[in-house]
Amino acid sequence: MLNEERYRIIQELIEEKNTVTVAELAKVINTSESTIRRDLTTLDELGKIRKFFGGATKIVKNEGLFEDSVSVREQMMSKEKTEIAKYCSELINDNDFVFIDAGTTTSRLVDFIKNDKATYITNGITHGRKLIHKGFNTYIIGGKIKPVTEAIIGAEGIANLSNFNFSKAFMGANGVDINAGYTTPDIEESLVKEAAVKKSYHSFVLVDSTKFNRVFPVSFAEVKKGIIITDKLTDNRYAKETVVKEVMR
Predict the structure, then answer these.
(1) Which of 34, 109, 155, 206 can pair with 105 through a Cys bridge, CB separation 3.0 to 4.6 Å?
(2) Highest mean pLDDT among 41-45, 66-70, 190-194
């Protein structure tokens, strides 16, 4: 196979999967890992991809302010979100004081929660409704409602959070990047997320594998500040920064 053909296949796979390993590429292209490493070095030097030890990822772009609606995001990576939610639901113990962030994966988490001895605080309108229908001890913070994500945001919400000390927080994020950390498109929403992480003993960040190596305009925490719960990790750099749990290995 010609070099150019290998380069094309490599770039297409990275574009599709965000991150790939040397072993994966060698198997797909049916060539040696040493050849793949040389190809990755060349593509990295050309600015086509970003090489790291054991694999490569696509060049991170700022994703901008656009954000899909809740109804659209609920359909994306549905199976993966369900498995992440199921796993996280088992992390809640009796007497935990829990913050649940607004978002589609955290909303699915609420569906699987069984512990009625914990106390729940949320900034998600849908989340609060689901929790009270289950008969759980539930509080919702006050503030401005963001229509796209159905999240409560703003200064009043941040002030509410300052009074709490959570044993666990379950957070959503639009993107995760080694350098930028956990990111989101909205400044006001990011400030609520930042406040919740700061007030939590353990912060679990629920992100499916498509969220890695993506950067949105506003960072709300460094990677090391959260425990990542994901379906599958294909970029081992994150495991060197924090604890990562893969639920679909």
Answers:
(1) 206
(2) 190-194
Classify residue 17: in a domain, yes or no.
Answer: yes
Q: Mind spelling out the 3-state secondary structure of the chain?
A: CCHHHHHHHHHHHHHHHCEEEHHHHHHHHCCCHHHHHHHHHHHHHCCCEEEECCEEEECCCECCCCCCCHHHHHHCCHHHHHHHHHHHHCCCCCCCEEEECCCHHHHHHHHHCCCCCCEEEECEHHHHHHHHHCCCEEEECCCEEECCCCEEECHHHHHHHCCCCEEEEEEECCEEECCCEEEECCHHHHHHHHHHHHCEEEEEEECCHHHECCECCEEEECHHHCEEEECCCCCCHHHHHCCEEECCC
Domain of residue 197 covers: 70-246
Task: Provide the CATH number for the domain around residue 191.
Answer: 3.40.50.1360
Task: For residue 219, tell me if it sits in a domain.
Answer: yes
Across all residues in the chain, what is the average pLDDT?
89
